[in-house]
Design a protein that fits this description.
By secondary structure, the protein is of the alpha+beta class. It has 2 domains: about 40 residues; about 110 residues, no CATH class. Helices cover about 45% and strands about 20% of the residues. The strands form 3 sheets. A 4-stranded antiparallel β-sheet has the order 1-2-3-8, covered by helices on one side. A two-stranded antiparallel ribbon has the order 4-7. It has a two-stranded antiparallel sheet with strand order 5-6. The radius of gyration is 25 Å and the shape is elongated.
Length: about 160
């Protein structure tokens, strides 16, 4: 059986030292990256008229797209998440029942708690079936807040002289 040579030991020590140095750099870079994302989110908040609908079919919300040199950043504002369960013993549920009116059984199904009939189409159904003020209030009661996120994506480099 071969024993570890000093060269192998030195190589392992180098990997440990380099790994630690990278770890420390990542901590600093992640903090800087967080500040950049927070600044871009604040800027996106200041430009709501420039927000565009999300293109993904399963996503609801808006996005703000900023182009860079060879990249883009999308600040994504997902719509509030529809709650999967509503407790009929809470005071909010009494308001939900009142707002939904005779559409309650169309919008929700009764299990042990009330759940939206179809979470993917719930927001659209509420907006189509109820008065705007009631729909907004019902959606607020049936949703959980979400937070904006930054999504980075590389873009192909355009060659000069071509469109």
């Amino acid at each position: 059986m071969k024993t570890k040579t000093p060269k192998t030991r030195k190589h392992i020590t180098h990997l440990v030292d380099r790994g630690f140095a990278i770890h420390q750099q990542l901590l600093l870079l992640n903090e800087e990256f967080k500040k950049i994302k927070d600044s871009l989110k604040e800027e996106a908040d200041a430009h709501p008229n420039e927000h565009l609908p999300l293109l993904e079919k399963d996503s609801e919300g808006k996005q703000w797209i900023i182009l860079g040199d060879g990249c883009e950043c999308r600040i994504v504002f997902p719509d509030a998440k529809i709650k999967s369960d509503l407790d009929p013993c809470t005071s909010d549920f009494l308001t939900i029942r009142s707002l939904a009116g005779d559409r309650l059984k169309t919008l929700f199904r009764k299990v042990t708690v009330y759940r939206p009939m179809d979470r993917k189409t719930f927001r659209g159904q509420v907006n189509n079936l109820l008065k705007p003020k009631d729909a907004a209030q019902l959606l607020d009661l049936c949703s959980s807040p979400t937070e904006a996120k930054a999504v980075w994506k590389a873009r192909p480099v355009k060659k000069e002289g071509r469109k």
